[in-house]
Design brief:
Number of domains: 1
Structural class: mainly alpha
Helix content: over 70%
Strand content: under 5%
Radius of gyration: 22 Å
Oligomer: single chain
Distance between the termini: 57 Å
Number of helices: 21
Length: 409
């Protein structure tokens, strides 16, 4: 891109962002009370549901990465990554971490892989398409159990997002931007060699990290809280923007679709209050899955921020790929939601995932949205599972820890 075109583009973006900021400021000055209440509602949703629901899984994802297990999982997925998405094997790490930690972890690792030269410029959009997904704990716990008060719909939306990400990545690599097939280094027909390579990769990643367990825990808390603070700020700002749009469109239902376009958590919360989930829950789950696949402009801005100021970001390809993912999620989520709402499946999910506690039943009967803090205190299954994962990570980290220099066995 020439210097003149860059200057014109920068001038256009500056004018656009400046105009949008002035409009928001004018709206806040015109209705300061409404803006304050909207910001407070966004803060309440973040503090009561998103923060307690996301903090433990974000910490566990950081510990998984530090222990090297996610590197090993990415190595095991290398044949699938190359075969399905025609991407280098290193992209499996970004996909695995993005699926485990959620937005914007996948974008951060994609940017890191591109900076190190492990993926090419043309691979960025495909890697982001598959790795830029909400945290599964957010979908199942916060949205499914907290907002919708239906764990079966939470699982249906989660499976729909994963499946639609795979399908959209497969199609994107062959239709939207064709790539040549990449032959896997170790095919799936050699499972022993693939497992040995994954184990070596996990050990090497742990040695390269070299942080003690206490340092890993401290860093995981710091990084998780920093990510959640950014999400909280975007949720509060999005709530203010949505409320201002509602004031300028009185008596119009168009604004109901806007929260999901701006911020996925706020969009999920607003969607859960819609009467559509009472009359046609499968259709509501499909629309919500499409909004989560889009990830909202705040999710896209978080991905852009992960790449830094100096690094170009393929906005056109990213937006087009997210629209493809959203369309496929809408189509795939509807039949899965219908199946999940059948009595046998609901009984099976309740048997293996006993979310509904006496407190949850009270919340459901009262029709209120439960707080994530109360949910974590009453749900012993989640607490014990998280503690078990932590103990497992600690034991694995102790087994494969690097030895101090000069110390012999």
């Amino acid at each position: 891109m020439s210097r003149i075109k860059r200057r014109r583009r920068s001038a256009f973006l500056s004018l656009l962002l400046g105009t949008a900021s002035l409009l928001i400021v004018a709206g806040i000055v015109h209705s300061p009370g409404e803006a304050f209440r909207a910001s407070l509602s966004g803060l309440q949703v973040w503090w009561q549901n998103v923060f307690p629901g996301l903090l433990p899984p974000l910490m566990l994802a950081e510990l998984l990465a530090a222990s090297g297990l996610l590197h090993g999982i990415a190595t095991l997925a290398e044949p699938l990554t190359r075969g399905l998405f025609r991407l280098p094997g290193a992209s499996g790490w970004a996909i695995a971490f993005g699926w485990a930690a959620g937005i914007p972890a996948g974008a951060k690792e994609t940017a890191r892989l591109r900076e190190s030269g492990m993926i090419q410029e043309g691979d960025v959009d495909t890697v982001l398409l598959v790795s830029h997904l909400p945290n599964p704990f957010v979908i199942v716990l916060v949205i499914g159990c907290g907002f919708l008060q239906s764990p079966e719909l939470g699982w249906a939306i989660a499976f729909s997002l994963w499946l639609s990400a795979i399908v959209s990545g497969y199609l994107w690599a062959r239709i939207a931007k064709p790539r040549k097939p990449i032959t896997p280094g170790i095919p799936l027909s050699h499972p022993r060699a693939l497992f040995q390579r994954a184990l070596r990769t996990a050990v090497d990643a742990r040695i390269e990290d070299a942080r003690p367990l206490g340092k890993q825990l401290a860093d995981s808390v710091t990084n998780a809280v920093a990510t959640l603070m950014a999400i909280g700020g975007l949720m509060m700002m999005s709530a203010v923007v949505v409320r201002l749009i509602q004031l300028f469109l009185p008596g119009n239902d168009v604004w109901l679709a806007i929260p999901g376009l701006y911020e996925m958590h706020l969009g999920a919360y607003e969607s859960s209050r819609s009467a559509l989930f009472s009359s046609a829950p499968a259709q509501g789950a499909a629309l919500l899955a499409a909004a989560l696949a889009w990830s909202g402009w705040s999710g896209l801005l978080q991905a852009r921020a992960a790449f830094g100021i100096e690094t170009p970001f393929p906005w056109v390809r990213i937006v087009a790929s997210r629209l493809l993912h959203s369309a496929l999620a809408l189509v795939i989520a509807y039949p899965i939601a219908l199946v999940s709402l059948s009595e046998p499946v609901k009984d099976w999910i309740t048997g293996i995932w006993p979310i509904r506690s006496p407190a949850m039943e009270v919340w459901v009967s009262e029709g209120t949205v439960p707080s994530g803090w109360g949910f974590l205190t009453v749900n012993l299954t989640v607490a014990l599972a998280s503690f078990g994962v932590f103990i497992l990570l600690a034991l694995i980290a102790a087994l494969i820890r690097p030895k101090p220099p000069g110390k012999k066995d």
